[in-house]
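To whoever is covering the structure queue this week,

Two jobs came back overnight. Logging them here so there's a record in the thread.

Job A:
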Amino acid sequence: MSLSRTRPLQSVAVGLSTPAGVLTWLLMAAFALSTVACDSGSPIAPEGTILTISASPNRIPLTGSSQIRVVARKPNGTPLNPGTAILFNSTIGSIAPNVGIDGNGEVITLLTGDGQFGIATVTAMAGNSESVTIDVQIGLPAGSISLQATPSSVAELGGSVELLALVRDDQGQPLKDAQVNFRSEIGSLASGGSLLLTDSDGAATDELSVTGGDVDLIQGDTFQVQAETGSGSGSLLTTSETITIRRLPSAEFSFGINNLTVVFTDTTQGNPTRWTWDFGDGNLSTLQNPTHTFSSAGTFVVTLTATNSQGADTISQFVSVSGQ
């Protein structure tokens, strides 16, 4: 028995010592390898294979995913053999290039967004069958943006404002991962002006801090804050809110004299809400623009104190009246 086992080995060894023997061995090895490859490889889709493809959902965020489903049938309508390879590619995003069919003749794989905005055309094919395609929108275009500022005013000495931007897609739904940029005419933003991403509710927030020095740069009593986002078509969607400056009052008044009667007109800056007049003759008034008749001629020191939510300011003027 031992001789019968070793004799073929000796024969092969001798055969390999000649060029013809080497060639014979290589041919035998190649045949064996090809036989193994055929036995272990994926089944091949027959000519006339029919593929159908679908995507769910067909619109995804920039980093979202869509389930790609392919149903494969032989020309006679029966499912392709399990393990038959379906080849995939996509113009943008990422997808597995080769997936084997399951026992139902179907393949399910994922298309994942890679941050690039656009239409992903997914192609699937099997063997020599005709390829099938489907389009998936990667990155949902913004349709609108709104801005809320809380509070809608700041004190003359400074303060902070919470900014909330809400982004909706072109179908009116909250848009996640949209880039939002907040801007303000004065003050500093917590974001430092960097782009912020919206959450699942389509919301992005920032905080504006304003100092008294910032307010001094504004000539009027208001300034603008803005929020903007890209529409997906290369344009910007922008919205703004007006912030009011709650200034301390700066009391001022003018007057017109007719004999002993004087008409006083408040010209105070800073949107006062209360007025106290002292006419210098023992009489007072809380009207904004009072008319007062003095009992005798003379010069009186008339004082106005104007008040708003930020404080008060007082001014006095000499008013001379006569009986003529």
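Job B:
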Amino acid sequence: MGYKRKRWWCRNGVMVMEYHTPLRHPPGEHRAKREKPTPEAKRQANQRRKALEVQRLILHNFSEGDKYVTLTYASGDAPDMETVRKDLRHLTEWLKRQYAKTGLELKWIRNIERTKRGVIHIHMLVNNPPGRDMGREIRSWWKERHGTIVKVSDTYLDGAFAKLAAYLSKSQRDESGAMTSRYSRSRNLVVPDPEIKEFARWNVRRKGVWIDPRIPKGYELVKESLYEGIDLITGYPIRYYTLIRSGTGGTCGTRKA
């Protein structure tokens, strides 16, 4: 086989990965010299892979108008992680009761961040029921209990949520200096399965030069999503990119409510 193409057909877009299979050497291609990747290179590759996974979840389970909130604690209040998770359990339980009244199931993705100054920031994406503004309701609930201002943004499709996914999935160093992620999500999110096709001819690159992606009718390429490079594991070329329906382009992912 020349190469494989994986397509994740999400509700709000299509994510594509194209990569060479080592079973057949493509004309004009040479395997890159395999060197042991540095810890930083591995960290970046793992972070990129995780961000793409989260982006697929967002594209499939969330839509424009859903709410992205940032929760903080009062100045001087630096709770431990056990306390933070307890507070989030209380928030989630309250949210489930509110969503039950609307007949809609709560869906969420969040990441807990501790800044260099020790300040806790909780970044959270939730779906928004029709006729409700859950961003404002979360702001009111959190402020009443913790006395802090909550930042609220509406999501929008520009950039296919790439920046939002990168932020929600990012890792940081813990107290020991090790990289760790405090990303989590609700269990009811639908994980899209890829459509996998194998091709005998390597028609993604020619003589070491990338060929423009083939875009299905009715879609357009999110230009900033295009990545073309060398797979650290196989040493062969790999690329991935995102498509959205024509006329919805853009560059970002959230807008202040």
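Note for Job B: The helical segments are 39-61, 81-102, 134-146, 162-169.

Please reply-all if you pick these up so we don't duplicate work.
Q.
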